[in-house]
Amino acid sequence: xxxxxxxxxxxxxxxxxxxxxxxxxxxxxxxxxxxxxxxxxxxxxxxxxxxxxxxxxxxxxxxxxxxxxxxxxxxxxxxxxxxxxxxxxxxxxxxxxxxxxxxxxxxxxxxxxxxxxxxxxxxxxxxxxxxxxxxxxxxxxxxxxxxxxx
Length: 150
Prior knowledge:
With 150 residues, this protein is α+β, with helices and mostly antiparallel strands. It folds into 3 domains: 7-45, no CATH class; 52-108; 110-150, no CATH class. The protein is built from 5 helices and 4 strands. A 4-stranded antiparallel sheet has the order 1-2-3-4, with no helix packed on it. Helix 1 packs parallel to helix 2 (32-45).
């Protein structure tokens, strides 16, 4: 009895042909058993997709993303132990940007001198995101609590 190839088989054959660089085309008179045999043949011609390990996450600290100049504080979650990045908001403070930790590079980490210079320019502590209020903090560019930790 003639059983035509299923929609799923035809779709899979087309996808395999595309990945193998073969012009797509499935005969209309293909049976299910012929489709299965063709799938097995095409699987042998397709190079397996290589899975790469993700790049290691950057260390804790403050980073300026070179793509857009956005500033992030990388920290480790107390609950899960996973590292994540918080975006410095325009009005001060930090917000979450999903996936930002994966966009940061180690060479984008800011030194204490760069953090201080940024704080002098903006009047905001680049470590905690709070407005610098005391004369000593403003002169240093970093708040007193952050200066003792960094």
